[in-house]
Amino acid sequence: MMAKKKLGLEDLGGFVFSTNDDFDESDYVEDSSQEKLAPEDQELEAHYSNKGRGGKTVTIIKGYQGPEEELISLGKMLKKKCGVGGSTKDGEIIIQGEHRDKIMQILRKEGYKVKRVGG
C-alpha cells in the first residue's frame, strides 16, 4: 500500500486566502511566463538512469530553461526522432532506453549545448 503524498501550500495551485477587503492579488502573483532562452544560451545535461524504474533504462535531459510548452514540444521531437516513448515532467525530458549519444547529436544540431553526465 502506498503512502499518501502530503500536500503543501504550493500544491493548492496558487490560491490566496485573504479576509482583507483591500487585497490586491497582483502584488502576490508570480509571473509564470518564463522568458524563452535561445538554444545556444542553454546548457542541457544528458543523464542515464535505471533507478526506480524496475530496471528499465532511460535517458534524462535536465537543465532546460523556458516555458513548459517549449519543453514538451522538444520532448516530443526527441521521442519521435528516436522512435521511442517517454514523458516530460518536473522540467525534465525522460526518453525510454539508452539514447544519450543520439539525443546529444540531435540537440547539438538544434543549437543546444549538451553535456554528458554519468557513466
From TrEMBL:
Query: Single GO molecular-function term?
Result: translation initiation factor activity
UniProt keyword Isomerase present: no
What's in the keyword line of the UniProt record? Answer: Initiation factor, Protein biosynthesis, Translation regulation
Q: Which domain of life is it from?
A: Bacteria
Q: What Pfam families does its record include?
A: SUI1 (PF01253)
User: Domain SUI1, which positions?
Assistant: 51-111
By its UniProt entry, which InterPro entries does this protein fall under?
A: DENR/SUI1_TIF, SUI1, SUI1_arc_bac, SUI1_dom_sf
Q: Which GO terms describe its biological process?
A: formation of translation preinitiation complex; regulation of translation; translation reinitiation
Where are the compositionally biased (Basic and acidic residues) regions? 33-48
Per UniProt, the ranges with Acidic residues bias are 21-32
Q: Which family does it belong to?
A: Belongs to the SUI1 family.
**Can you name this protein?**
Translation initiation factor
